[in-house]
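Before relying on records like the one below, remember that each one covers exactly one chain. Contacts with other chains, cofactors or solvent are not represented anywhere in the record.
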Amino acid sequence: MATSIVFSTLLAFCFCYVSLAFDPQPLQDFCVADVGGAVRVNGVVCKDPKKVTAEDFFFSGLQEPGNTSNPSGSWVTPVFAAQLPGLNTLGISMARIDYAPWGINPPHTHPRATEILTVLEGSLHVGFVTSAPENRLFTKVLQKGDVFVFPAGLIHFQRNVGYTNAVAIAALNSQNPGVISVAANVFGSNPPISSDALAKAFQVDRNIVETIQSKF
């Protein structure tokens, strides 16, 4: 009887292990993204290795400051697989973020990645909010050389709290982390979310919702 129970348990364990197993690593040296290819997969299909060159693993541009002349006062220069095809299947990406004085990278999430941020210049007030029901805010002011991590999927933000420009580099554990900007996605969706629904959700007058929607 005991032997039968042990055997059944082992079978169940093996079944679960096999069912949930996956290979998180590439199965070849590289899979350079064929960004112009017609085939669509979960990711980007591989370019013919014989046509791959050193340029596929190269990106130039992070030395240039982004244009922060916009309502948020910030600019993100991404280096994802779309910009650097050699990142395809490697599970990493990065971005440069520029902030005008008092500029903000508005509250947003990355549904497919954790982000680690390093301040290169200036002072940034950063933070993230945990999921419900706690909705706990973790926040800190960072100086040049400081590092802060934003767990995957959680709403986070950065704001320049200095009188000079600020610069940061973000590293993410996905070739395509995705970005959901809270305000832009909620108030600037296409087609728009019903103003009545948003008024109820945010417990404000419908006219206020429509005014905010007009900004997006």
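The chain has two domains: 22-178, 179-215.
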